[in-house]
Write a structure and sequence with these properties.
The protein is built from eleven helices and eight strands. The protein has about 290 residues and is of the alpha/beta class. It has a single domain, classed as Aldolase class I (TIM Barrel, Alpha-Beta Barrel). Helix 2 packs across helix 11 and helix 6 packs parallel to helix 7. The longest helix is centred in the last third of the chain and has 23 residues. The C terminus is likely disordered. The structure holds 1,3-dihydroxyacetonephosphate. The site of 1,3-dihydroxyacetonephosphate has 15 residues, from strand 3, strand 8 and helix 10. It comes from Streptomyces canus.
Length: about 290
Amino acid sequence: MLLHGTEALKQAAAAGHALPGFVAYNLETVQGITAAAESAGRPVLIQAGAGPFKHAGREALMRLALDAAEDSAARLGVHLDHSRDLDEITACLEAGYTSVMVDGSHLPFAENVVLTKEAVRRARDHGAWVEAELGALPGDEDVSTDAVTKTATMTDPHQAAEFVAATGVDALAVAVGNVHGFTKDPVRLDLDRLAAIHAAVPVPLVLHGASGLPVEELHGALARGVAKVNVNAELRRAYLEAVHAILPAALPGSDVVSVWAAGRDAVRDAALEVIGRLIHRAEGGAV
Ligand code: 13P
């Protein structure tokens, strides 16, 4: 069923857990994420967004994700990840997306405020909630690369407070040392900065770039206001490793279905593993 509203996000924040946002590119990744949510019995966001639209086509992927969420017994939000384009945001809202991320992190502060405010206005008309980003992460959203493609700007706690008040966003993605994709060296988060942002803003925080993040860093983030965690590269890697493993057996019979099924099941298992990592009661409490 479609998961509407911010209640699940707020419940995750109150429990010291996080809602996973998993990036989906195609039928098998949508199916794998949906199966993980069903098996775990926990709310999940399918992030069928701007990057994957380039592969699958916007209409096709929007319908795929929305149909899967509507038909499932699990609570599944359908979320537009990383959009800079108000027309794209409107198209997803009109199709029935339950939330959108407007990404003005590349813009000067004042322009990010204007873009985000407009996205919030449009989302309200459709009963959807909005995530925005302040500060910028290094790394690429669709490919892990050692050659970092974007320079990082850490989120400033005072600016974050001003930004949330000025825009009315429901959730704020922050840059506190997190990186999109796998990295050569383990990532260390600036947890003091994160705590200061958490103290300064009244909305749940979002951590992008969680693939490969050491679990103590992740749990440190959950203890400091992060209530939504985005994961992509771990699912991509699981899919590719499963496909790689099964190819020798599949090739002689051109058995393409077994390859897709292996990728789908690997995404499900990787997503389930992440869901478990995000159920964490911070510092001494019970899970
Ligand atoms: P990773 O690829 O590092 O998991 O990041 C995913 C993400 O932040 C999508 O918005």
